[in-house]
Amino acid sequence: MTEQIHEIRLTVNGVEHETAVPARRLLSDALRHDLGLTGTHVGCEHGVCGACTVLVDGQPMRSCLMFAVSAAGHEVTTVEGLENPDGTLGPVQQAFRECHGLQCGFCTPGFLTTITAGIAENPEPTEDEARDMIAGNLCRCTGYQNIVKAVCRAAELARESEDVQ
After folding, report:
1. Range of the domain at 19
2. DSSP designation for 28
3. Model pTM score
4. What is its EC number (predicted)?
């Protein structure tokens, strides 16, 4: 018995992709293996660690828990899509750089997407709100202090860029 293959159209980082996947192909696998977007990392494969988090219609989603066929018709944003239109670092990326919010970097893509959605919802988070924002993402290296600083700095940078426009 052969597995049925589905032709789907995925919009990822503003670019439309056509691909053929089995119904059980996870979004994380489709992004990494079918589309070559390897910035999304797969950690626990159970939705616990948050390393695979992407944005689906602007909301954080564990891509290891979502089937690729379910993403058809939705806008998916991966870590590769977080830079500014001119190719410079986006506010969350810049804040991670300035605040030394990463060490090994494995969990970073999930944090960046999660924080992007978080500051869109709460553009002026307190430190406690920043901690709540990242509570679903695990990091084994940093101790979270610089990540919390990066959340607050990212919100500040995002507000400043809105003021300029």
Report:
1. 5-81
2. H
3. 0.94
4. 1.2.99.2
